[in-house]
Input
Amino acid sequence: MDQPLCLLAVHAHPDDEASKGAATVARYHREGVHTVLACCTGGEAGDILNPEMDTPEVRQSLPEVRMTELRRSAEVIGYDEVVMLGFRDSGMPGSELNDDPRCFARATLDDAVSRLVEVIRRTQPQVIITYPEDQQAYPHPDHLRVHEVTVAAFGAAGDPAAFPEAGDPWQPLKLYYTIWSRRRMLAMHEKFLELGLASPFDDRWFERPSLDHLVTTAVDVSGFGHVQLAALRAHATQIDPASSFWFGLPPEVATAAHPYDEYVLACDLCRDCRGVPPGGSEGPGAESQAEGPGAEDASTFGGSDGFSTQLESDLFDGVRGGSQQLAVSDVTGAGLRWSR
Ligand SMILES: [Zn+2]
Output
């Protein structure tokens, strides 16, 4: 296929792109995939969580500071393009931030979806990543809204009757949700204990219902773990460098303990095109799972607790034509495109 590969990640706030899926984006960027970040809000309402950055100057210019942080993070990760959708942060329910008519939570669904549809039609991603519908662990209204908006835009972008002013139709093929598996938390927790360090994962973490059975896809991000940490550090006002949650384990130890970013494949039009029913294991997708780095390890993740033993290892599985191999090219310093 001649169409260049493109991966679009839709996030709520500046810093979400660093904490969710950063290593995955870094890996695909390195493989030559065009990587686009759509960030729905400007992060105006973020707290300053790093005591060293809590100065009157920073407080006064927080919106500008957060844009600078986002730009640095996007460059570190390897995003080729950042698009700000132009909404303001909302707060938790009851917050006065939600009185601002420009806030994301108050935008009509049509307004938000049309802005994202315009991005999808222009950048033409085959694969889109966003948040799952189940966000019990962190039910921020902007994150819940990102899910609704992305699901609606995934469907509308290919429909010529929907938002005709937003460009020519383009139908993405696969929609993924980011997920933090219990398996990952356990691996980290056990590594902390093994090294005699205090684990930030207390009982509350493990009281949450496990979502591991939903995981369909494990992307091997060996060698890219440091990218996520550097991106997090770029958000100097948001991330405390003393946070043991993010920085408690030596980076190479943390990555080795669980070298996968995990996803839920929510919609797969490739598979539907191949005539394989959802959940079926036939077809080229199933075959290709046995190949490629990490596929073997990923497929041995589990099984005893209902965790799928047939995991995809590539977000573009089924999208890439037949035996076509992507050239691995170091695409660095190519310049970051910034919109709005
Ligand atoms: Zn957020």
Notes: Confidence is low (pLDDT under 50) at residues 275-308, 322-334.
